[in-house]
Batch of 3 targets.
Target 1
Amino acid sequence: MNHGEGWSSGGRWGPRGRSQGSWQRPNRPKSESPVMVDRSLDESSGNRGRRGFQGGGGRCRQSWSPRNNSPVQVYVKKSLQVSDVGKAAQQETKCQEDGRGSADEDAAFNCWGDNKDVLQPSALSSSKNINLSGGLSVSRESEDMNGGRMSYDLVNRMGDVSFSRQVSVSSSTSDKKVELSSIEEGDSAHKSGDVGNACNESISKPFDICLEKEGFCLKAGLKELNAEKRRATTKGCTGTVIRPGMILLKNFLSINDQVTIVKKCRELGLGKGGFYQPGYRDGASLHLKMMCLGKNWDPQTSRYGDTRPHDGSIPPNIPFEFNQFVQKAIKDSQSLVASSSNKTKPEDEIPCMSPDICIANFYTSTGKLGLHQDKDESAKSIQKGLPVVSFSIGDSAEFVYSDQRSDDNAEMVVLQSGDVLLFGGKSRKVFHGVRSILKDTAPKVLVQETDLRRPGRLNLTFRQY
Ligand SMILES: O=C(O)CCC(=O)C(=O)O
Ligand SMILES: [Fe+2]
C-alpha cells in the first residue's frame, strides 16, 4: 500500500493523510442496490453495488437498510492521566506547529487517556430500498438474547429474494445500470484536512485500543443492549457495487465477529509488534495508531519488510479467523457481482486473494487519513487487481474515494461498524481516505462487550503482496 501517494505533492496529504483543502460536505450517495448476503463463515453469497463517481457518470451503488442503534447512553470517564499531561502538552505544541486544530483528542489518544463523555444515539445511514429479484441463498448466524449463536435463513432464496435497490442511475464506467440510494451521513461538519502533526517518535509502550473499566461508568441496560444486538443481527448483510471493483458489504461482520476481532487485535496490539504511532517521511505523523500483521509496512519508505525498523519487532501472523472472514467477503462480493451483472466471470472484477498483509489502524475521534492509493504491494498483485479488503469496527467513518488525487470531487460513503469494503479490479488503484470519524456511533453492545471504551474506529485492511 502506499499511503504516501497524495502526500508528497504540496505536502498536503499525508500518505495516510490529509487534505489540503476543506472537505466538502459529504456527497450523498446516489444509488444503491443492496443484496442480502450471508454473513456466516461457512456459507457465502451476496453482492452489492455503489456508484461510480463524478465525471459523467453515474453512480452505481446498491444499498440496504440502515443500522438502527438504540438510544442508549453510556457514560464513560473523561480524563487524561496525570502522567500524560506532559505528553499532551507536547502534542499540542506540535499540532499547533503544523496547523492542526485542537490536539486534545490526539493527546488523549497518544497518552492513553479517554475522552469519551456520553455515547449518543448513532448518526444513522438510511436508504430507500426497492425490491429486486435475485437468487442468493443466504443464511447466517445471529445471537440470541443470551449471546448464544443461532442460525437462521435470511430472505434471499432463488426466486423469492427481496433485494433492495434504489434510484436508478447508470455508471459511466460500467455497462450496467445501478440504483442509488440516499444515505444520511452523520452530521459531520467537517473540518478541512488537517495536516499531520509532527510526531516522528514512536511510543514505546504499546497502544491499548481498549481501556480498562475505571471511573464512573453507567452501563446501558441489559435489555437495551440485547435489543440492539438483536436488531444488528436480524438486519442482515447486504451488498452494494459502489463502482466496478468496489464492493460494500454492509453489516457483514456480526457483533460477535466484531468482538472477536477487537479482542484479538487488542491482544496482539499490546504485544511485540503491536500498535504504535507511526511517523512519516518528513516527520509528519499519521493520525492513527498502526499495527501490521504478516508483513511490516514502513511509512518512512513505503515498503514492506519482515521486521519493523524502529524496534526490530516481527509482525504477528494474521489470525486464522481473520483470513476466513476475508475469504468469505471475497466470495460474497463475487456472488454479488455475478448476480448484479451479466458478467460470467466475477473474478475479473473481484479476483481471489490470499492476504499475507494486514494493516490495522486505530483512529481516535480526530483521526483521519488523506487520499492515497494503496500501491506498495507487488506490481503483480496490483496489476492483477487483487482486492484490498477493509473491515470497519467501532465508530463510523466518512470514507472518501476518487479517481483523482484531489478530494474536490471525491465521493463519500459512511462505513459503519461491521461493514466490509473491497476494492480490487478496476478500482484497485482508487484514491481513498478517511475524512472523519463520526463520534459515538459505535454499537453500544460492542463497546460493552469489548471494553472498547476508547472512542474511535478500528480498521483492518488485508492485502496480498
Ligand atoms: O481506514 C480506512 O477505511 C482506510 C485505511 C486505508 O486506506 C489504509 O490503511 O491504507
Ligand atoms: Fe489505503
Note: The CA atoms of residues 171 and 353 lie 26 Å apart.
Target 2
Amino acid sequence: MARNKIALIGAGQIGGTLALLAGLKDLGDVVLFDIVDGVPQGKALDIAEAAPVEGFDATYAGASDYAAIKGADVVIVTAGVPRKPGMSRDDLIGINLKVMQAVGEGIKTHAPDAFVICITNPLDAMVWALQKFSGLPTNKIVGMAGVLDSARFRHFLAEEFKVSVEDVTAFVLGGHGDDMVPLTRYSTVAGVPLTDLVKLGWTTQEKLDAMVERTRKGGGEIVNLLKTGSAFYAPAASAIAMAESYLRDKKRVLPCAAYLDGQYGVSGMFIGVPIVIGANGVERVLEVTFDAAEKTMFDKSVASVAGLIEACKGVDSNLA
Ligand SMILES: NC(=O)C1=CN([C@@H]2O[C@H](COP(=O)(O)OP(=O)(O)OC[C@H]3O[C@@H](n4cnc5c(N)ncnc54)[C@H](O)[C@@H]3O)[C@@H](O)[C@H]2O)C=CC1
Ligand SMILES: O=C([O-])CC(=O)C(=O)O
C-alpha cells in the first residue's frame, strides 16, 4: 500500500517538529514547504538522516514551490509569524491573513482533496479565512487549538492530583484566546468530574480556578519564557493527533476549531467544539449542553472570534 503524503506549509519551529513526529509515528512521506529557501530542504534532510537511527521509513523533501504538495492527503499549515512578549495573538492578523491567502491558493491548486489542519494564529479567524481562500469543503478543514489547550489543562491537573496524565481528560472549548472555555464539569480524572473532585477534597475551588486561568493564559506563559517565539512541541503533538485520527480513521473525539452550521447556535464560523475526526474528515459535532455560566463564557468567546472575523473582512474586502 502506498504511503500517505503529508504536506507541512511552514517549516519553522512547529513545522520541523511536525515533520519529526510524523516520521516517528509512521504517518507517511513528508514534504516541508517554506518561502525561505534552504530551510525546508535542510530540515527535511536532517530528519531523513534521523530515520535510520529511529527506524522509520519515509521520504522527506523540502520545497519552496507549491507543486511539491501535489496530491497530499493531509496538509498542516503553520506558515506565518508567531507572537513575541507583549503581543496578543490578534496582533498577527494583518500579516498572517495575507499568508493564508497564498497558502489557500496553493492548496486549492495542488491539494484540493487534502484534509487541512490550520495552526497559524489568530487561529479561529485564520482557519475561517483559509477555508474561504482555499474553497475546501467545510468538513475537510479544521483548526488546531482545543487539543493543545486541553493538554495544558490535563498537565496542570495531573500535577495537582499526582496521577497519570493518561487518566485525566479535559475539554477546553470556544476560541483560542484568553477567553477560551475550560469546562470543569466535562473534565475528569478516570471519569470523575473535577467538580466532584473538589467535593471529595482532592483540590480546592481556588486551586481549580487558578488552573483554569493558567490554561487560558498558557500560550502567553510560554511566549514570555521563550521570548523569541511561541510554543511548538505541544502544538505539533496536538496537530499530529488530529492528522493521525484522519489518516487511520480512528474517529477520535477531539476539541478542534470546526465549522459550525447552527450547532451551538453558531453559523458560518469556526469555533472550538468536540468533533469526531475520521476518514471523512469532520464526521460529527458533539453538542454538549451548557449550564448558564458555561453558556455565558462560550458566548463571550464566540463574540471575540466574530470580532476577529470582522477585522479580517476589514483588512481584505474579498472576504466580506
Ligand atoms: N493554534 C495554536 O494553538 C498555535 C498556533 N501557533 C501559531 O503557529 C504559527 C507558526 O508558529 P511557529 O512554527 O512557532 O513559527 P515560526 O516562525 O518558527 O515558523 C513559521 C514559518 O512560516 C514561514 N512562512 C512565513 N510566511 C510564509 C508563507 N507565505 N508561505 C510559507 N511559509 C511561510 C516562515 O518562513 C517560518 O519558517 C504562528 O502563527 C503561531 O502563532 C503557535 C502555537 C500554537
Ligand atoms: O500563544 C501563542 O502565541 C501561541 C499559541 O497559540 C499557544 O501556544 O497557545
Note: The two ends are 44 Å apart (CA to CA).
Target 3
Amino acid sequence: SLKTKDVVLSEDRPKTLLLQKHSDYLASYGLNKNDYEYCMTEYLRMSGIYWSLTAMELMNQSSRMPKEEIISFISTCQDSESGGISACNGHDPHMLYTLSAVQVLAMYDRLDAIDVEGVVKFVSSLQQEDGSFFGDKWGEVDTRFSFCAVMCLSLLHRLDAINVNKTVDFVVSCMNFDGGFGSKPGSESHAGLIYCCVGTLSICKRMEVLKADELAWWLCERQLPSGGLNGRPEKLPDLCYSWWVMSSLSMLNRIHWVDKKNLEQFILACQDSETGGFSDRPGDIPDPFHTLFGLAGLSLLGDTSIKRVNPTYCMPQETIDSGLLTSNLFQ
Ligand SMILES: COc1ccc(S(=O)(=O)N2Cc3cc(C#N)ccc3N(Cc3cncn3C)C[C@H]2Cc2ccccc2)cc1
Ligand SMILES: [Zn+2]
C-alpha cells in the first residue's frame, strides 16, 4: 500500500522523562527468580545484566544493583578451557556474552574478577582467514561478532591479539552500494549491522573507508513522521533503531541530520508511565533492552539529566575515559 508504515503518537503520551520510575523498574526487574519470565531468559542473562546496569549507570542509580552478586555470577560463567564467557552457568561460551561480561566488569572496574588472558585467547581464536569472526565454535559469521571482538579487546587494551587490517578488510567487503552494511558480504543494509560496522571501523581508527555522505543519508532516511526511526525502508519505527541510527550518525559527526525534537518526542512516548521502563513502540510492554536504548538515545540528543554515553561502546563516557587513562599509565 502507498501508506507509509508509522505509528501515531497519542495526546496522553508521556512528555517528560520519568527517571525515578525507570530506576524502580530496573531495580525490581529479575528479582523474582521463580517466575516463568526469569527462567525463559536464562539464555541472555549476561546481556540482560549489561543492559540493566548500563541504564542504571546512565541514571546514576547503579548503587541499586547487586554489585557483588553480579561480579561472582560473571566469574562462574567463564569457561576455563576456552576462556570464553557464557550467558549463564552451564551454557556454551559465546562472543556476545563475553563482550557483555567485559562491559559490566569494565564499568565496575573489576576486570580482575576474570581470566583476561583467557578472554583474549577465546576472542582471537574466533578470527578467520578472511578477517571475519565466528560467534562461537559452531561457526556462524556475522559483522556483529567483528564488533564484539574489537570492542571487547579494546576494553582490555589487547587489539594487538588480532589482525586489525584483515578485520577492516572483511567489514569493507560487506559495504553495499548505498553505503550501508549487512551481516555478511552481499547482505542488505540494516541499521543494527551498520552500527556494528561503523563501530568496528571507529575502534580500528579506519573511518576513512566509509562513504560517509551516502551512509548518513540512508540513516536519516530512517526517520518517519512520528519522529521514530526504523531499521530498513518500509518498516515500523522501533526505539532500539533510534540508538543504532543515532549512534552511527554521531560517530559520523552528522547527528544533526535527524529531527531532534520529533525523535525526542517519540522516545519519551515509548515510556510506560505505570510500570516504568521503555518499550519498542508506544503502548507495548517495556523491557531492559529498550530501556537502555531509550536512555542512551536521550543522552546522545543532549539530555543532561542522563550521564553522557559513548556512542561507540554504549557505555558511560566516564568509563571509557578512565579506561584510556589506565592504558596510558601502563604504556
Ligand atoms: C521478543 O523477545 C525477544 C526477542 C529476541 C531477543 S534477543 O535475541 O536476545 N535480542 C535482544 C532483545 C532483548 C530484549 C530484552 N529485554 C528485547 C528484545 C530483543 N530483541 C528483539 C527486538 C528488539 N526490538 C524489537 N525486537 C523484536 C533484539 C534481539 C537481537 C539483539 C541482541 C543483542 C543486541 C542487539 C540485538 C530477546 C527477547
Ligand atoms: Zn527494538
Note: The chain has a mean pLDDT of 95.
